[in-house]
Design a protein that fits this description.
heterodimer; A: mainly alpha; Ammonium transporter fold; two-stranded antiparallel ribbon; B: mainly alpha; 3 helices; elongated; disordered N terminus; disordered C terminus
Chain lengths: 426, 87
Amino acid sequence: MTAETAAICAVAVLLIPLAFAGLALMNAGFVRSRGAAHVLLTTLAAAAIAALAYVVCGYSFQAFPGRPAFAFFLGDKQWDWIGADAWFLRGLDFDGSPLGLAACSGMFAAAWTALIPIGAAAERWRWSAAATVAAVIGGWIYPVFGHWVWGGGWLAQLGANYGAGSGFIDGGAGAIQVTGGLAALSIAWITGPRRGKYSPEGVPVAFPGHNAIFVLFGGLLALAGWLGLNSAAAILDYNVPPPRLALIAINTVLCAGSALLSSALITRARFSKPDASLSANGWTGGLVASSAAAAFLAPAGAIIVGLAAGALAPYSIEWLEVHFGIDDPGGAISVHAVCGLWGLLAAGMFGRFPGGASGQWIAQVAGIATLLGCVFPLTYLICWALNVIVPFRLPIDGERQGADLHELGANAYPELVSHLEDFTQR
Amino acid sequence: MSAQDSGDSLLSRHAAPPLRRSAPPARPDRLAGFLLLPAGWIIVVSAIILLSGPGARAAFVLAGIAIQILGTVLVFRSQRRLPKERP
């Protein structure tokens, strides 16, 4: 990697935290005012603890191609299954080499993965539970899958070893977004819905978010973070030359823009006016889908990927809430897991990869199958066990008071002393 | 308004009944669903390792994904609360 490429990559990596700010604002806007400060503090804590866990041991498990790893042989093929680098980033030289940049990018990616579930469990889970889950995600769940995809692991080697295209291609849609989205689904199931979310007949009650400005501005802020993620992943993990960053930026914006258009048109057709929250979710869903292969899509392909992601987001949010009783205030499951899975599949369908190797879709399906068949059950099991040790759910009084007052001792908006919905017969 | 009709009293009168804190009780279809998910994954990975013909490999990969979809449906159905169970 030349010095110029390293400098460009460093700038891209440093843009990534803007996505944290964007998602945090969106989640704060999606919840009722009584839980806004709790969501933001939980986001800060989750990002901090996941980053800490990643530096302590996560990087060791993720590693980087060419670094020590535990492997076994199946036939004559080597299967790297987990990194074996030193803890606390020992032995890394931060001299502009890909290793140092990958460690920094991995730390941000671990933090990002850990903050995704916050949108799904907002208003009803404890701060301590979020911190515990973040430590496990940053120290174990993300790094292990990250090694398989970006650390020279077996999914990345499917192409070289078994002729499945170029191996599993993932610019972050799988390792970050789907992993976080599946953790969000597990936690939403374990915590259950917010009190009063469903009527005795099982009909969901609308709990409108308290600030649409936060939601929409958060979406804009997230775009900058996603541009950084997609660019950094392309340079670090797939050796994409810097001049191709223009195409990555175009595809990222096209995906998000067409997804927003798709969501807005669908909600306008159904509710007579575009829904701001669902359209913002569509925009984010487009960004998530773009992460799979922004460097390898033609602009027309990016538009198709975005249009489908924008349709998937609002329909799956409604479907999960109405038909499966999943209370996901921030739409994290639909936006990150559903749209991320679509992006990974679409990469195999529309991506144009170097060498034009055939069978790319098989590698993409193998990655999706791994997320659903290994990462998801493992995450659910870990969260279930953590819930036994550190109960996730706020007590009844805490939910009635609001997470802000109960857990932090003060509301985000202290002038609002009562909540009308508590006095209204549902 | 008497003292008993203060905010706390109103809250307790109109608040929804307590929600159970943990996940719904174990059901066999949830266990079956969670077993089908890794089973499908193993079929997909085994097909890639063991089969070299593109047709056979694709067929088994799709079969593995179909099993995972079935597992996903079972897990979602098992987590769905019946109306009488909802708060």
